[in-house]
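We modelled the chain as a single entity of 244 amino acids. Its sequence is:
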Amino acid sequence: MAKVATILPPSRLSLVLLARLSALLVALLALTWGFYFQTSFLHHHRPSSQQDLIYAVLHPLLMVIGFIVISGEAILVHRWLPGSRNLKKTVHLCLQGVALASGIFGIWTRFRGEKGVVANFYSLHSWMGILCISLFGAQWVIGFLSFWHKVEMRTIRARVLPWHVFLGLYTYGLAVATAETGLLEKLTFLQANGRVMKRCTESTVVNCLGIGLVLLSGVVILAAVSPKQRNLQIAYSNGKCLTS
């Protein structure tokens, strides 16, 4: 009697593992920057309350960990999660919903305060952030309607799928690019005002965070676009090994 064993292709496992390690590195660096260097998030020209400090620290944490890391994990769901397609789509949709909520709240923490939205909406970082969260929200709604509305026909879903994948990866890449501009803007501001030296621990942490985001986005996008390999099946019959 033959026995069949199914082995997951090692390349897929290695990409997912590398993505997880990159995400862990990014999360640790973001937490280190937010909690260990809190004075960098205080306003130097006016007194800041404890609430202002909390919101200032929450902005990079929500946008990096809540938005980029979690949305990256949502992209990888179809690569590692076992089970039916409906289960994978449910987890994907929920994780993207968490990422969207984190992004919206993260932007709100930046635009709140006495100056308001208009006064803070001046830099390339802020423009890219609004564009990114708008595209992400539209992508989430379109994905929900296209893949979860029961009256949608299979042919319509097939037509929407390539655009859904493209916009998802484009928005994810845009989110990483937006985060990089934010890191550069913050670090340049701190160094120009003499609050942070060009060669110091905080500058190193922020630069490593930027490199970590580049690594993470590259691995996630590579895992998303790489072709799915067929599982290797090994059949054992009468002491002989047959592969297929």
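As a brief sanity check on the tokenised model: Residues 154-192 form the longest helix (39 residues). The beta strands are 3-7, 232-237, 240-243.
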